[in-house]
Specification:
Length: 228
Amino acid sequence: MNDADVSRQIQQMVRFIRQEAEEKANEISVSAEEEFNIEKLQLVEAEKRKIRQEYERKQKQVEVRRKIEYSMQLNASRIKVLQGQDKLVNSMKEAATKEILNVAHHHHTYKHLLRDLIVQGLLRLKEPAVLLRCREEDLEFVDAVLNEAKHEYAEKAGVHPPEIIVDNDVYLPSSRSHHDTHGQFCSGGVVLASRDGKIVCENTLDARLEVVFRKKLPEIRKLLFSEA
């Protein structure tokens, strides 16, 4: 081979090597770009997921706050309704309390009522001797019906008439005054107790009203608020 042939072969080898290098470089470039695009897409998707998750988290927080606020408003509304209902019920009880103040003003009727209250108290206690307390202004009425009440009890209970000691030292408080609405008061009736004081029967008009009102309260509420 002469120098010209050797030179041509070398040139061919150089071109071949260069072509291979260029092709390889092109493959590397394409591959790198593909990897870059894939990685970029993954990063974009990851950021999208992160943004979606953050949005969902904040949306849930808003929903929770909305539910809490709604619940608080609903509870406040219910409390307001219940307070209004309690106010109405208490006003009815207050009206009834004022009404029973008039019972003692009808002396003939009230005297018979005192007798019935004494008999009822005796039947509850079933004691041979009892202590009786009344209002000082009712003492005359109590003395007038005491003997009749003892014998009525004895007949109903099938026992001897009991000994009833009227307490002339300690009286039940008087009716409620318009000037003092918070002090102790008694609208009428009696309190009976065993001699040792261990058994007490409070049979005042106020105590009877409290018992009846408490017993009838569900029925009262149903009548007043059944459609509420």
